[in-house]
Amino acid sequence: xxxxxxxxxxxxxxxxxxxxxxxxxxxxxxxxxxxxxxxxxxxxxxxxxxxxxxxxxxxxxxxxxxxxxxxxxxxxxxxxxxxxxxxxxxxxxxxxxxxxxxxxxxxxxxxxxxxxxxxxxxxxxxxxxxxxxxxxxxxx
Length: 140
Known about the structure:
Layout: H1 3-17, H2 21-38, E1 40-44, H3 49-55, H4 63-70, E2 75-80, E3 86-98, E4 101-114, E5 120-126
Antiparallel strand pairs: 1-3, 2-3, 3-4, 4-5
């Protein structure tokens, strides 16, 4: 028996004893679905919008002061308006929930724009307002 015969016999044994790839993929997907149904998920970092809305004022609050209230941003970017004006933008977000109970999921997003002087120009908030005053009610 030559060396080629041993190689052929070894290939036959490996082919006969291996688990088909499709079974491995199906088992992995089933395991992921079971784990997703039983586990909760979260993204981002928790932050206190109520404290932000009480302490931050457009045209007055600096980047350092915003970071002292909220911590470092989750993302930094640049906003360019149609008139050519540019703003630095910091993004804060937090989401949590369960894949099997989307009605219990919560997500909040805060985008803070800074003018060229490094003070808050404006901000966008999406989430529950409990504990934080909307912008138009601050002066009342």
